[in-house]
């Protein structure tokens, strides 16, 4: 496995993108939970309406963050898929 790290026959990024996606999801969820707890603090300490709005924005931001993490991971994978497809087309091109 360690020897494959220094060979350039296949890309490492498509295998690692799933790990980075899960890390991004974890960070987005932690940020959303922090926003919710902040909203609860504001709700009980200062203003019910302000806390409710903060919680609502935290939930919306969490959903948007998860969607953007998925889109960015898919876009990176699409670039590698295009590279594989172009390689297949190049290899097949000589036999037409």
From TrEMBL:
Residues that span the membrane, as ranges: 20-44, 50-71
Pfam short name (any one): DUF4282
Keywords: Membrane, Transmembrane, Transmembrane helix
InterPro entries named in the record: DUF4282
Name under which the protein is recorded: DUF4282 domain-containing protein
Upper classification of the organism: Bacteria, Pseudomonadati, Pseudomonadota, Alphaproteobacteria, Hyphomicrobiales
